[in-house]
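Changelog-linked ticket: flavin-adenine dinucleotide example.
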Amino acid sequence: LTRVRHPKLRRSPHYATLTDRDISFFERLLPDGRAITNPDDCLPYNIDWIKTCQGQSQLVLKPKTVDEIQAILRYCHEHQLAVCPQGGNTGLAGGSVPVFDEIVLSLRSLNSIGAFDENSGVLIADAGCILQTLDVHVNQFGHTMPFDLGAKGSCLIGGNVATNAGGIRVVRYGSLRSAVLGLEIVLADGTLLDCLTSLRKDNTGVDLKQAFIGSEGILGLITRVALACPTAMSGVGLGLFSCSSFEKILSTMRLARKLCGETLSAIEFLDASTYNLSLKNLQQTNKPVEPNNFYILVETMSSTYEQAKATLDKLANTALEKEFITDGTLAQDLKQYKDLWAIRERVPEALVADGYVFKYDFSLPPARMYKLVEETQKRMKPFSNVRNVTGFGHLGDQNLHLNITVQNGYSDEIKHALEPWLYEWVAKERGSISAEHGLGLHKSKYLELNKGKQSLELMKQMKNIFDPKCILNPYKVLPYKID
Ligand code: FAD
């Protein structure tokens, strides 16, 4: 584990240091061990999922009610104590853990599932509910969550909204932002902002909740969410196909759009290095399809299994005929469906098992996506400690996950060979330097490359309105001055 915060980043003297009086206050407010001070117990809240950063917080708070959250923030605001909001701590941009000694405010214990309206398909849930738990809940009513991602068993709905999480179903349901109908937020000074409507249509003034979706905890604490949950489709099909080149992957994607039409629900791709690492991590020796340089997963959904299967069959046959794919397999039952998805969904875990991970998450024009992986592979050639340079991602959303795994831990040399080169390359293509993971700690200093001066200035003004004492998630998202 290496701390990858900038070597010159210093703890700001602007923040107070935690005192015994502060700790007593929080222990009284949160009895039953919900104000954690034992260093061993604080440790998991200080380290991020991919083990790229570690903070030194000496206090983790686990409120169970919104009143408690308001009291915590009121106190921190008054005493100038910095706070790091944390959901399931599965974030991949270093935003969910403290940088120095910020108090961790964990949302895990605020986890009641509220009402589900069967007429509108709207679910209300506390921010600390686990995504998968909510999915199981709405499944009982014949609905599904409007997004899905590999971390579903650990990430929390508040964290999902705070990162505007993407995942594998954006092709079908659009971005999470469009499914969030209402939010309840606690502002930095403890004020409750009630934007928790369940309405699909509401054109009354400025839609304030939008500012908090994807703001990664720098503007306020999301405490409750109203989400539009689509009707679950009972028929699902999934195919895995191998292709010889990235051009053939793109041809297969275009064909899938045409032939699967409204049944299309996911299009993902993996290059051979990613695929092989994932199979190794899953300890899977039998290859589901004939090996080749690239793999594409296509999922279809429909109200009937026959229709979901029929469109996928047509895709497989036509793609073979046209020689876009060289081999393929279609899931025949639920087990095969889950096994094929595991190859894609457990890639992040396979990468962490391969070494220290330099992780990038770009939006790029499809024709340029893999060019960047190839150029990075060339650039990494001189470094003998680089194990793999791999590309995979949400192809249907033009979202490339580029990862460089390194043996023997973090390397400054490699980081400098990658950054800012990669970010500048993407900016030149008018891509995004963070498609779905957010900026967190790792990418904040490159925000201007993506958004320009005017947008950045307005973002700073917004931060000043919502959090004038700057206590929420400091050093993250907005570029922090390092001198
Ligand atoms: P955390 O990691 O705890 O926090 C993320 C950020 O949100 C932090 O800045 C934190 O301060 C802030 N935050 C958390 N909760 C709140 C709150 N209630 N109010 C205000 N701010 C808050 N992401 C994708 O977009 N698509 C994927 O496909 C995807 N796949 C993944 C697969 C794996 C295996 C893993 C480990 C991660 C994946 N991620 C993916 C990243 C991650 O799961 C998402 O970013 C997720 O939405 C984070 O939720 P969380 O509850 O873990 O939040």
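Closing comment: Example verified and attached. The two ends are 26 Å apart (CA to CA). Residues 447-466 form the longest helix (20 residues).
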